[in-house]
Amino acid sequence: MSDLTDLSIAQARDLLAKGELSSRELTTGHVDAMAEASVLNAMITEMSDVALAMADASDSRRATGTAGALEGIPLAIKDLFCTKGTLTTAGSHILDGFKPPYESTVSDNLWQAGAVMLGKTNMDEFAMGSSNETSYYGPVQNPWRRDGDNQALVPGGSSGGSAAAVAGRFAMAATATDTGGSIRQPAAFTGTVGCKPTYGRCSRWGVVAFASSLDQAGPITRDVRDNAIMLGAMAGYDPKDSTSADVPLPDFEAALSGDIRGLNIGVPKEYVLDGMPGEIETLWQQGIGWLKDAGAEIIDISLPHTKYALPAYYIVAPAEASSNLARYDGVRFGLRESGEDLTEMYENTRAAGFGAEVRRRVLIGTYVLSAGYYDAYYLKAQKIRRLIAQDFQEVYEDVDAILTPSAPSAAFPFGDKSDDPIAMYLNDVFTVPANLAGLPGISVPAGLSGDGLPLGLQILAPAFDEETMFRVAGVVEEAAAFTAQPAQWWRSGQ
Amino acid sequence: MSVDKATVARIAHLARIGVREEELEPLAVELSGILQWIEQLNEVNTDDVPPMASVHDKALRWRDDVITDGGKQGDIVANAPDGQNGFFAVPKVIE
Q1: Given a cut of 60, is residue A494 above it in pLDDT?
Q2: Which of the listed residues A384, A417, A447 is the one where a domain comes to its end?
Q3: What CATH number has the domain bearing residue B26?
Q4: Which domain holds residue B15?
Q5: Positive or negative, the Cα torsion across A62, A67, A73, A75?
Q6: By CB distance 3.0 to 4.6 Å, which of A53, A142, A325, A362 could disulfide with A155?
Q7: Which of these is catalytic: A78, A120, A196, A417?
Q8: Which residue among the candidates A182, A322, A406, A409 is catalytic per the annotation?
């Protein structure tokens, strides 16, 4: 059955359509692989029985001639998406036992398209982290290890479980969310494709909120075509999300023409960092060469406020988080710790329920919004955010897309950065600007580091032009011909 | 700007997160480090720059003022740590 877990969504879709494969067979292959991979800790909730029942229902629908865009395809769902009647934790102790009485719009769109749910993936607590080490449910292991080395590595974060499930080949694709890089950075660390679409493209309704003006859902997949297929099924206007964009939904898969002749690709000089490994710089130059060979014109550009994106983000995101996380009060859902009075009950519940990184960010957010500091911090950060968005607006008058590295390093060992918050935050230095500006970005695996770990390149595009983003990503993917896979050391007999 | 123990205690209370006395000093050092790193933003002149709260630049949509949902008291209290008779129960607030 192991070959079933090597299929892409597009390949499985064709076999299912021809009747050469059933969703039951496909799902069984992935359910078995998921059970074998439990040491990776990529799943908070495994749902094998539900998956098989959904697969049978899908096969019945197909028999009656109704098949959706993802009919019969087994997927994993990040545990930040509310799933009706199924435990939804956001990786936090404070949501103990929470079973939402409703379904998020994005996951509902996937079920409407015929997809099958394998379970809920592990993640950094409330999506706050870049290594998946802040989850109450324990860290996720990256399926990849360095050549000749058994040391466990982080999968990136916050969507580390989703990335590991796809890279470990027990989910064909997974939903994820990206507030500052939480889709693109783990995709880069695991040799998968991760896309954060334009802000407003996917509904935020039913997605546990971290920073509402930055949060955006997107897919992690094994290749660019599957990513386009998944995004098409996840996205769409939703009146239940006041910032959902009422714009036409293009056929993203049709955008993969392979033809980028005449496109102008920007290369921003500010994305060269002191201390960045030379092999990332080399990979970036290779990527520039691939696009040039495919007929694109390369244009040197400047995004002058890039270095201020990360510190501005670490005001805006914690401020919004401190407000969003006020709802965890021990009254309406999740954990409650008793206290002498109501205030003490709140304080005890939130002390026990939030981990160290969430507490750190709620405190920073509360501070920057508090009387006397609002102008100096929060207002200042909102002004810097405007300058960052304007940087992009100006360069997009001359270029159609931008090519950068996805992350400043490859995957690192557990504990490497967990004592130094700022070192950890620097993981997102190349991804955060797109969140502040609301722009689409995708990470594509493009090569291996000297010690055999995947490295990604990021393609950014103008707002609501995911088609150009996918078109360029497809060309990078084809030129990179990245076929490396992690050794499946966790499987018996391997 | 660096924050001291008293400031950490004050913001922790504002955020309704209980912090033990011995955690205040390490948290003050940690938060001060982050705030000092953030202060590089002061290098940028933003005098004439309007703040940007969201990339969503359109006015929020209006809809008809009609009931679209309801009758879900059971669903709403189903996840409460202490839901009694369709209500959320909390420790006594008024003596």
Answers
A1: no
A2: A384
A3: 1.10.20
A4: 5-43
A5: negative
A6: A142
A7: A78
A8: A182
Residue B32 lies inside a defined structural domain of this protein? yes
User: pTM here?
Assistant: 0.97
Tell me the per-residue pLDDT of B20-52, one tens digit each, with 9 for 90 and over.
999 999 999 999 999 999 999 999 999 999 999
Q: Which of the 8 DSSP states describes residue A86?
A: B
Distance separating alpha carbons of residues B15 and B17, to the nearest angstrom? 6
CB contact under 8 A, A315 and B3: no
Same domain, residue pair A86 and A167: yes
**Burial level of A215, CB count in 10 A (0-12/13-18/19+)?**
buried
Q: Could you give the 3-state DSSP secondary structure of residue A15?
A: helix
Residue A380: both structure tokens together: 């200042």
Whole-number mean pLDDT of chain A?
Answer: 97
ipTM for the complex shown? 0.96
E strand or H helix at A300: strand A297-301
Q: What is the DSSP string of A176-213?
A: EEESSSTTHHHHHHHT-EEEE--TTSS--TTBPPS-TT
Q: What is the pLDDT of residue A221?
A: 98
Residue B34 placed within a domain: yes
User: Does the active-site annotation cover A78?
Assistant: yes
Question: Which tens digit of pLDDT belongs to each residue from A145-185?
Answer: 999 999 999 999 999 999 999 999 999 999 999 999 999 99
Q: Is residue A92 part of a domain?
A: yes
Other CB atoms closer than 10 Å to residue A142's CB: what's the count?
32
The pLDDT of residue A493 is 61
A363/B8 CB distance under 8 A: yes
Catalytic residue among A58, A104, A158, A244: A158
Cβ-based contacts of B11 with chain A (< 8 Å):
363, 366-367, 370
Strands A454-460 and A441-448: antiparallel
A182 is catalytic: yes
Contacts of B61 in chain A (CB under 8 A): 239, 242, 246
Number of domains in chain B: 1
Q: What is the pLDDT of residues A326-353, one digit of tens each?
A: 999 999 999 999 999 999 999 999 999 9
In a domain, A219, yes or no: yes
Return d(Cα A148, Cα A333) in angstroms, integer: 47
**Residue A380 is a catalytic residue:** no
Domain range for residue A23?
Answer: 2-259+438-480
